[in-house]
Design brief:
This protein is an all-alpha fold. About 60% of the residues lie in helices and about 0% in strands. It contains eight helices and no strands. Helix 3 packs across helix 5, helix 3 runs parallel beside helix 8 and helix 6 runs antiparallel to helix 7. The longest helix is centred in the last third of the chain and has 26 residues. It is globular. The protein starts with 6 loop residues before the first helix and ends in a 15-residue tail after the last helix.
Length: about 200
């Protein structure tokens, strides 16, 4: 069986990504990898940019290149993430543990994802003051997510906690789309090939 991940399993297989990163001695989690990719894309770095992998290596692996098989999978993840952000049908999903994993693990991964997203976005957008107030607010709200106190045991029911988790997750997705829609690289409209006016 080939070792490459299909596009549908790329986003869904958090455990597989975790194992691949561990196997390559990458200190970053799968959530951090995908958060950073999503932040770079949303901040305006094109998926095809020759700088993309270099930036990832700097932040995730002390500047060291990834093994070839993992590099290929990461390139596919970059491409798939860009496509889901560009598609316009809001099917973008965060690479996080499965819904049947412990809530505390999912929360930790969600916070890691969001922190990495903000790092990636800031690499591309160093001056937030030139962006719209909507984007500055989105960045502020995402920053608030990174301050979630995961260790706190509250009196809410498990059901309420699950509901809150999914609400925050959906909010993150909307903030990511806001950022991408303002400064991310959109697909080029292929349109008619002829530029001649008739």
């Amino acid at each position: 069986m080939a070792n490459t991940l299909t596009s549908s399993s790329l986003i869904q297989s958090y455990d597989r990504w975790s194992a691949a990163l561990d196997g390559a001695f990458v200190m970053a989690s799968a959530a951090e990898l995908h958060g950073l990719i999503s932040g770079l894309l949303s901040g305006g770095l094109a998926a095809q940019s020759s700088d993309f992998l270099a930036v990832l290596y700097d932040f995730l692996n002390d500047g060291q290149a990834l093994p070839q098989a993992l590099k290929t999978d990461v390139q596919q993840l970059i491409s798939n993430t860009a496509q889901s952000l560009q598609s316009g049908d809001y099917d973008f999903a965060l690479l996080l543990p499965n819904d049947d994993d412990a809530l505390v693990e999912r929360l930790e991964a969600m916070v890691e994802w969001t922190q990495a997203f903000l790092v990636g976005f800031a690499v591309q957008q160093t001056d937030l003051s030139i962006l719209s107030s909507d984007i500055r607010e989105a960045v502020e709200q995402l920053t608030e997510v990174t301050k979630l106190d995961i260790a706190t045991q509250d009196d809410s029911s498990a059901e309420e906690n699950e509901e809150a988790y999914f609400m925050v997750l959906e909010h993150i997705r909307l903030m990511v789309f806001s950022c991408f829609n303002e400064v991310g690289v959109k697909p080029i409209d292929k349109g008619p090939l002829s530029k001649t006016l008739h």
